[in-house]
Amino acid sequence: MTPDDAPLNEEERAELERLRAEKAAQQKAARAAQERAELERLKANKLRSKQEAAAIAHEQEQRERGRKLMQPDEDDLKMPVGQKIVLAALAVLVVAVIASMFM
Q: Do 54 and 78 fall into the same domain?
């Protein structure tokens, strides 16, 4: 038997167990760090998505508000008869004044 084939003595076995435990602890710490980094990345993505959604909603709200402002109201389309008469009289008066200036 060569020295490498011989069974481990107590001291070597204890050292092996200690090294295995250290390796397991390092791997566990590395996994925890990876999980923590992934958690932070996911939180950042979620926050960014919420901010983008809020910005899109705000932009849509602004567009809708602008669209409503640009659309004529029912009051604009349904003018009372008296108002139509006054506007027609003013238009005739303006035409008469302009015509009198050129004659």
A: no
